[in-house]
Write a structure and sequence with these properties.
182 residues
């Protein structure tokens, strides 16, 4: 009886630990980038398309401006979008793994995601992709007259998943996202 109780208790702790992800610990370089991006987004001389992108939930500018503002009216929409992206990617890769298809990113084991509504996993993927971009492309923000600061967040997620959980030692050219340094 003690063994069964101990086994169930251990499984419960393991599942709880797997279901919770700690927030990303941002480097000073990432913190500086966030400040720079927020200043860029607040500028008066933005192009009209950039002003429109500021209102798009799927845009990096929306994520950077509202992810740390839980009292903002935009925050629930952002969290819902992130939850949807996280759920879609986790469900997709888990299905590919179950059907023995080599997915475009290869997490160890099976990713959890349907148990709770916590977007920390996908938020960390975005932060990590930005950290990696700072290292591989220090002038990334200045490319295309600053248009990269208004890029779709889905590209950050795909790049983050592909580089955090690569299926190959070196990601083949045909699998790489266009315009991204690996």
């Amino acid at each position: 009886m003690k063994i069964v109780f101990l086994l169930l208790f251990t499984l419960g702790l393991t599942n709880t630990a797997l279901a919770q992800t700690a927030p990303w610990s941002k480097s000073p370089a990432l913190e500086a980038l966030i400040v720079e991006l927020k200043q860029h987004y607040a500028a008066d001389d933005l192009f009209e398309i950039d002003k429109q992108n500021l209102q798009r939930v799927d845009n990096l500018s929306y994520f950077i401006r509202f992810i740390d503002k839980p009292d903002a009216p935009e925050y629930p929409l952002l969290k819902a979008y992130l939850w949807g992206m996280q759920d879609a990617h986790i469900s997709s890769v888990n299905q590919q793994i179950q059907t023995n298809i080599i997915p475009w990113f290869c997490p160890p084991g099976k990713l959890l995601g349907k148990r709770y509504n916590d977007t920390q996993f996908i938020e960390n993927i975005i932060w990590e992709s930005l950290e990696r971009t700072i290292k591989t492309e220090p002038d990334w923000l200045k490319q295309y007259d600053g248009a990269t600061a208004f890029s779709p967040i889905s590209g950050r997620i795909m790049y983050g998943l592909q580089t955090k959980y690569p299926c190959y030692e070196k990601i083949p050219e045909r699998h790489r996202l266009p315009g991204v340094v690996y």
